Prior knowledge:
The complex is a heterodimer. By secondary structure, chain A is of the alpha/beta class. Chain A contains 11 helices and 8 strands. Chain A has helices spanning 5-29, 55-62, 78-84, 88-95, 129-142, 160-171, 191-194, 219-234, 265-271, 274-284, 290-313, and strands spanning 70-73, 119-121, 148-153, 176-182, 185-186, 189-190, 211-214, 240-245. In chain A, the strands form 2 sheets. In chain A, strands 2-1-3-4-8-7 form a 6-stranded parallel β-sheet, with helices on both faces. In chain A, strands 5-6 form a two-stranded antiparallel ribbon. In chain A, helix 1 (5-29) crosses helix 2 (55-62). By secondary structure, chain B is α/β, with parallel strands linked by helices. In chain B, 37% of the residues lie in helices and 19% in strands. Chain B is built from 12 helices and 14 strands. Chain B has helices at 11-25, 49-57, 65-77, 96-103, 106-109, 139-144, 156-168, 225-239, 257-267, 282-294, 316-322, 326-336, and strands spanning 8-9, 29-33, 58-60, 81-88, 119-124, 149-151, 173-178, 195-196, 210-213, 218-222, 244-248, 251-253, 270-277, 303-307. In chain B, the strands form 3 sheets. In chain B, strands 3-2-4-5-7-6-12 form a 7-stranded mixed β-sheet, sandwiched between helices. In chain B, strands 9-11-10-13-14 form a 5-stranded mixed β-sheet, with helices on both faces. The two termini of chain B are 35 Å apart. Classes of the chains: A alpha/beta, B alpha/beta.
Amino acid sequence: MQPSLEQKLWMFEHMVLSRCCEEAIAGIYFEGKQPVFNMASGPIPGEMHLSDGQEPVAVGVCAHLDADDIVTATHRPHHQAIAKGVDLDKMMAEIFGKSTGLSGGRGGHMHLFDADVNFACSGIIAQGMGPAVGAALSRKMQNKPGVAVSFIGEGAANQGAFHEALNLAAVWKLPFICVIEDNAWGISVAKGASTAVERNHVRAASYDIPGHYIEGNDPYKIFAVAGEAIARARAGEGPTLIEAETFRLAGHFMGDAEGYRPEGEKDGLFARDPIPAMRARLIADGDATDADLDAIETKAKERVDAAIRFARESADPQPEDALTSVFA
Amino acid sequence: MTQTNERKLTIARAMAEAVAQEMRTDDRVFVMGEDIAALGGVYGNTRGLLEEFGEERIRDTPISETGFIGAAVGAAQDGMRPVVELMFVDFFGVCFDAIYNLMAKNIYFSGGNVKVPMVLMTSTGGGYSDAGQHSQCLYGTFAHLPGMKVVTPSNAYDAKGLMTAAMRDDSPVVYMFHKSLQGMGWLGTEAGATVHTPEESYTVEIGKAAIARQGKDVTIVSLGMGVHNALKAADKLSESGVDAEVIDLRSLVPLDRDTIRASVAKTGRLIVVDEDYHSYGVSGEIIASVTEHNISVLKAPPRRITFPDVPIPFARPMEQYCLPNPDKIVAAFEEIKAA
């Protein structure tokens, strides 16, 4: 399965949009946090996990989804949210903790929920798995279309929730896809030091479901494998486990000095940045011109600037609103 | 009030009847958990449902609480109304993330844009020598964490009405039923829990306590099994002319503080009976609810009859020594009656 030209350009556009978002956040994050770094200060307080480098997985999968499909995301959710179509203004306002945010500032960047596009997060490793399986069960029981995708990191494959959810999805043959974004590091611990198998897709054999490994952080390959898995799920043929090699160009969180990485590793990763790579490929394949792609990049930047402006100009929540929305 | 057509049900049957009636009128309701289908639930509260509704809507799960409770959260957010069973509340240790980080928080994290209409039913309580991993109540543990409603019926009438209310609620409800009240002979059965239960569907409001016995000399506040101990103590006290009022909390979240405060304002004495551990729990919360509101209503220091802060022991003499009982309640009253 190969992406159409339209799908290729959609993927590029959303990778760029996501990267612009992260760059804008990175530029603002340290406002008020210098010279002394204090996570609580500045217009964007709290932890910040950026997704730079991991965009191909999100777009390669979400290119096959529509608003009705379900995605559960992780503590590093921005690229997944953008690829799923979460409202960018409300998402940015949530990241800033504003009243106009997705939850009016109750959740923050690790807890983005957009019911309009069936997008949810959990900041706890692997805990998006169960809810995604449950949403898949809901669709199956109601005979409604829709698949559920849970994005996780490779570290989550060592969590009990990963295994319990895969078993449940398999035993009930649910329209569920687990997508592992393998960026090779669980915060500071290398995958090889934490994981008994070299590649997590082999764990699919434990649940008698297909498991696929995609190397190279390649959006087209991810598109192809995800497309087959999602078509399979839509056809009622059950779940699939997908493991995609990717990498983190940012630290685990903003402020992470990444002293745990081998010297020079990061330089090698920047040289493989998937966005310039895709840009070059689109041109080399004759799919787009420099001018076409410049226009996409300009538009993305403008869109993000508008979202940042919306977030900055939005009002803070009323403090006492903290006491509302505990129950439905 | 006389009951012309008395229809006594056990709590187990009342729970199953509530679920069956709701399932007949609402396709979104389904049940999942361990041994809830062919077996009808270890405590009988899903008996008969598989036969009527089939295995699609009455789902036995793997022994995989993180998986299926997490799945219930996702199904609820997607428009279903799951009723899910955690067989023993003691098992919360393997799945609490799905409960308190997902089920209890996703409404808040969405600013109310996502609903989580699910019921987590779970058994509580000891008294039958099942030792420290199968006998706990843990009411305070669940009630402490925001985002979950918590109910604890003491009799079949409330069990049915609270279950129906829980299934119709758009927020998650933890439904904690005491094993000794289920009417399963092999777990010991408290006869007082088996009461008249109307056949038609009805609700009992979540967040509203009941006055199980009216009185003027002392307020005994309790929940679940403790209500029956309190009523027995009240009978004993009445032999010496003491008129005890017994409040059945029925709900822990929301907590009906007004009913408690009004009763203590009337009686001036407060005894709390809670089978959960003594410290940092429901009993302390009840007392604080009275004293922080108006400490002057108390004629005597409040008393609490609770499980001591030890893991629940296996041997019968040790467990029975630790459990609340009517004699302990009577003795507590003797300590405070002079005031």
